[in-house]
Amino acid sequence: MIKSKHFEFVRTAAVVLIALLLTFIMISFVSSKPLETIFIFLYEPLSSMSHAGNIVEMAIPLMFTGLALSLLFKMNMFNLGAEGIFYFSGLTAAAVAIHFSLGGFLHPVAAIVLGGIVGALISAVTGFLKAKWNANELVTSLMFNSILYGVGQYLLNYKLRDAAAFQTASFKFDPTALLSRIVPGTRIHTGLIIALGCIVAGHYFMYKTRWGYELRMTGANREFAEYSGIKTAKVIIFVHLLAGLAAGIGGSVEVLGMYNRFQWNALPGYGLDGALVAMLAKNNPLGVIGSALFLAYIRVGADMMSRYSDVPAEMISIVQAVILLLVSADQFLKFWKNRMLLKEAQKHA
């Protein structure tokens, strides 16, 4: 018998299954060979080491932004600033990779640390505005995304751009700054280890420390937290610092792990995807790992499907929309949870 404490896991699994079922129904209407197309969608991402590697490669940046947003969402802060921070911190790491040359592992470490610090400081501004003047964090974070993108494009075009390249891209990175591959036959890099380490640290912080307890209390009820003696303004700023640090490290790791020069001419989208990852994980840092891998899996499957069948990859956008709608619907399956709680209460009465 399923207990109420497992409700959120079952609810999320139901959301995923419903979204996939709707996907299969749509494929059956669009494709001339629906069964073959569904097989490609589900099997091809795992059919070879390189394809499976693509899933992990795509999941790494999603883990970082998912972790950043899970911290903010747990605080009941709907902040989407990880998008701009991810981009700008990646550019910061690129500048270090271009203009400095350090021996051994110091070069990527310096670039990643600096990118993380820049991300933390930028995010702290949004946190300060929220804590001091109760500025709407969604509005300020979205504005910062536009500002960071504009400043980043200026720096890329006028300070870092390689005129000899046949595209808008920076000079090549010093080879010592690049992250090394850890799985032969794939592009999986040491950023995976960094991502998993950050997630474990984030989980420990959220559930095993006093600061994490204050974070959860403030997110549940800020007024009650203040009445209990928690300095919520400091908690808000501190959590924004941590979230910015995670997103900043993520942007730096992605640039140094997957590219040899900075070439993002648009916001990469990982910050907004991180919101979906965090919601699927129910704002639990450890759950971010599975959520990121699942989202990467269906995206790689959609890409394979568009190559080997007559169904376009854009179909996956519908899946993501359905997942987002159902996950964000508080009343979805709530009647079942109420029934379980009632039965458990009667059992212990």
From TrEMBL:
The keyword Cell inner membrane does not apply. GO terms for cellular component: plasma membrane. It is found in: Cell membrane. Its main location: membrane. The keyword Repeat does not apply. PANTHER family: ABC TRANSPORTER, PERMEASE PROTEIN, GUANOSINE ABC TRANSPORTER PERMEASE PROTEIN NUPP. Pfam families: BPD_transp_2. CDD domains: TM_PBP1_transp_TpRbsC_like. Keywords: Cell membrane, Membrane, Transmembrane, Transmembrane helix. The chain crosses the membrane at residues 12-31, 51-73, 85-102, 108-129, 138-156, 188-207, 235-259, 315-333. It is a multi-pass membrane protein. This is ABC transporter permease. It comes from the Bacteria. One of its GO terms (molecular function) is transmembrane transporter activity. InterPro entries: ABC_transp_permease.
